């Protein structure tokens, strides 16, 4: 057990996912969910009648990443017990996106707080993906109801985030609701067909608003997307770093080290990513179980090895521990998502441990947010 208040940099609360969940209507929410399940790769698609894995990917046209590519003949829907479901040619399919115990696909703040207590987590940063909804109001309510336990991130419609209406909404999330950073997923760019990318100068007013408030940007990138490879996405991030040097950035889900490991499992990151982690205000989550838990057993020794190489190469001040709770419980418990690293990373000094599991997160956010967390982190 760690002897200080642990901060989980990546967690979620959300209402039942079959609803609008803060979007203007259920249909807009379902659009995002269908696109997300199309690009989701960690859990396989399965056929309902026999649980067999299927390679069919019928939710979206592989040739058209825009809204027009959405399949409209699959009756895509939110199911029960953690599943998203659809029908194709009379056959029922599903993906087990959340743990099976999540009957109505909801994670109430009260439940997550009790989970945090059980796993001995002081505070959680609430990330705000479109799968779950547009939840800044929910995050603000949860933070008020549970002082010191939650810190929320704002959200935009990424494809339109340079428009005045989106910037106005973001400013409201920051100034009225007290969100402490911006969550930005490049997968959300499907809504404009990836025609305008976030390093385009048209996005500058957005980045200026975030920088003015000294808030971090939490980035979700893909290893393979219409933008290109992970390195292509890092090139776009580099342009933003160069044009807006005051911004701080967090790589959500962490560095995809498996892409850059050789036959001996030695990691050599490409020069662009190496330079970002050495020289730029870029930080990364250590969040292996949600990505690797379906491929290997706890306590994930390969993940510990990769974390060791990252910390030894770039220093412990670049990394923050996160869980992706409650999603991670499709693979392991909340406590295990912490302890695989806290209990098995014997390469970490006491100072390294405190940085990764607490202090780096505190330093990432502005002083007003740190003050708000004072009751929770101890």
How is this structure best described in words?
- The protein has 13 helices and 16 strands.
- It has 2 domains: 7-14 and 106-377, TIM Barrel (Alpha-Beta Barrel), CATH 3.20.20; 26-96, no CATH class.
- Strand 10 (182-185), helix 5 (204-212) and strand 11 (216-220) form a beta-alpha-beta unit.
- Strands 9-10-11-14-15-16 form a 6-stranded parallel beta sheet.
- The longest helix has 15 residues, at 350-364.
- With 378 residues, it is of the alpha/beta class.
- The model has no long low-confidence stretch (mean pLDDT 96).
- 35% of the residues lie in helices and 15% in strands.
Helical fraction: 25-40%
Structural class: alpha/beta
Largest β-sheet summary: 6 strands, parallel
* Uncertain regions spanning at least 5 consecutive residues: none
